[in-house]
Amino acid sequence: xxxxxxxxxxxxxxxxxxxxxxxxxxxxxxxxxxxxxxxxxxxxxxxxxxxxxxxxxxxxxxxxxxxxxxxxxxxxxxxxxxxxxxxxxxxxxxxxxxxxxxxxxxxxxxxxxxxxxxxxxxxxxxxxxxxxxxxxxxxxxxxxxxxxxxxxxxxxxxxxxxxxxxxxxxxxxxxxxxxxxxxxxxxxxxxxxxxxxxxxxxxxxxxxxxxxxxxxxxxxxxxxxxxxxxxxxxxxxxxxxxxxxxxxxxxxxxxxxxxxxxxxxxxxxxxxxxxxxxxxxxxxxxxx
Amino acid sequence: xxxxxxxxxxxxxxxxxxxxxxxxxxxxxxxxxxxxxxxxxxxxxxxxxxxxxxxxxxxxxxxxxxxxxxxxxxxxxxxxxxxxxxxxxxxxxxxxxxxxxxxxxxxxxxxxxxxxxxxxxxxxxxxxxxxxxxxxxxxxxxxxxxxxxxxxxxxxxxxxxxxxxxxxxxxxxxxxxxxxxxxxxxxxxxxxxxxxxxxxxxxxxxxxxxxxxxxxxxxxxxxxxxxxxxxxxxxxxxxxxxxxxxxxxxxxxxxxxxxxxxxxxxxxxxxxxxxxxxxxxxxxxxxxxxxxxxxxxxxxxxxxxxxxxxxxxxxxxxxxxxxxx
Amino acid sequence: xxxxxxxxxxxxxxxxxxxxxxxxxxxxxxxxxxxxxxxxxxxxxxxxxxxxxxxxxxxxxxxxxxxxxxxxxxxxxxxxxxxxxxxxxxxxxxxxxxxxxxxxxxxxxxxxxxxxxxxxxxxxxxxxxxxxxxxxxxxxxxxxxxxxxxxxxxxxxxxxxxxxxxxxxxxxxxxxxxxxxxxxxxxxxxxxxxxxxxxxxxxxxxxxxxxxxxxxxxxxxxxxxxxxxxxxxxxxxxxxxxxxxxxxxxxxxxxxxxxxxxxxxxxxxxxxxxxxxxxxxxxxxxxxxxxxxxxxxxxxxxxxxxxxxxxxxxx
Lengths: 288, 325, 315
Hints:
By secondary structure, chain B is of the alpha/beta class. Helices cover about 30% and strands about 20% of the residues of chain B.
């Protein structure tokens, strides 16, 4: 070994940073779908419920009916746009409500030890209840529709948010600076909203996108069964339901709504993964 | 011809992307020799150990060479490495609560090593394991063999870790903060066990710790790491009585001893001002310059280890006084 | 372990009790007058009152609940208002379709997902691993019913290999029954496998970063041996929990798949009764399904206890 050790050349190599591609792709896809939904509120080519027997089952690419027409001569383009809107609204609303309620109860369980056990056991019970069955029961009693679907999905998703919020709040509450804040005389409420909430918000945002996607899928499933969204509203799952009921599985119209759901859900999942990597690069380095 | 060293590290660099954590270190551990590696957390001690064992997480790159048992560990295949890990070189980790497989019985974890490396049969493996546990002063080794890790205390688990490390008479043991996670009373016992075992087996020891008295008690030589480099190295007697690098001096001065605690006037414990520069902001010159009282313009250039017996990498080393500090 | 089993059983019983109250409350309280629901919109107040008295609906709700529970525990699940068919009879005749479908799907998902997820984790920094991860990502995004439609389009309509729907009773021709179940089980299996593959991959990647895997490798296990001997065994713990969640998803998937393939299963029966607003039948059938899901969960919980020495052996 040479006596005088030379310092090796240390040159900054190009960093092996995790690519931002999923985040960008996911955000773009989600944004495009949201914009399509937004546009459909103000403008769609034709009324989604206006049938015209003389133009039934027009093929894709027909002038004036970009995606063709269905078995009653209704414009598929308009139905697709409205359906995307329904998916986005129901997915976002149920995920947001679950986020809101779940975060409240989760933080309550984490900071008030007396309420911990009751809240968590209740969450366990709700979690064991199959969501679709729950939605079916609701549909049989208060009737199917927008609000029923959102209500059913929210009750189905909330326990997951309760669990995640509680677990991550506990982790924050175990940190030393929380003990310092307590010694300093800070109240529970102050600590919860000034320290815990900001620290778990990134986890919650990721969780929100995951359940947004789950909401889109569940709504589609319910509407496909005929107990979700019904006419005069339109949803992608309902379009598939109509196509299969009226024409059968060979109906070429079955392709588009399904593809719409897949694209939206992939977009949301990519967004969720991308955000997770963005918020927690250490985690992404080791696992993803 | 057999090599006379247990480990030879040449210009080891460990990096993650453009972050360079270990910036070219070299040292040789002869068989039966005990080396201490000290430094603050973030100095690159543990990464050095993991790089030697070939257990860095995915994404970390290495360069330089680490010679052991006739091969360069940095370039050897996982298969080649796995015939040496646990056999000719082994490692004791810091946290015994997470270092043992929670779903396997302790006995199976020890006998696996013996059967895998020494090719002994089940019965012999159990006998040898029991003997090992006995050596580790573990009471009722039979029941310990039959336990799961969660049923044992931290001290017991760390003794098991040491037993596993010693099982196949390795040439080299790397112990990374082996007692940091243990109670003070248990620390002594565990260190004594390690000490006896290393002496008996004449194997090389690389002891990593930030606890200077432990190094002083256990090792013959010491290397002080700062900012991913070795800044001073030599025998314990030399370095601890006459630190030449300002950082080593600061490190020794910030160690509480009975001498520097003045009960009436409060403690005279000093600390080094500032903190270790983060990896992404490591200066080109001496990494310690910003915190150093003796820093000059020259320190913007990188100092190399000099050629004396007590080697130091510093432009303005502290002169050696004959009488000690 | 004994205490663990006992605790689980107590929790199982309490959960069922609370769920039954929940179902009852939801249907009776949220739904309003059952008689009015049964008779439909065009019924007169007189008719509704008459039916209410007949069904004992004017009594206090707790009394009705206990009567329902009492009957339920004695095997009387009520009967349909219009067809007069017994709910228990309906369930009994549909179970041979739904149970093989749901359990078969779950089993297939496990068989596909565990090796695939392990492979993806082992090769997470290689293109092949990324490809598997991508496949599962896409699979998660595909709605169950659409997967069913596409599969029956390809294998049923275009290739003509398997029936796209319909059912032959087991007693009549069991080969025919099996053939009818192939596509549905396959659909349910691959959709659930997508989710499970992803979880398997994550669970194994997490475990492989644990200290004890490092110890195992430090004592001479190669990457591959450590993955199989230490990684898989430890990763199975979080995966068992995931399986419990999948059991609920499985029932939802079964409902939809039975619809896609026109199978006369238990979930189809609920759907028909929901549409026909047969409240009593729905109430009892839902309870049966919840018991089914929770029993699967209980079994999974006990399996978890068996796998984890920290629970099995205790302190």
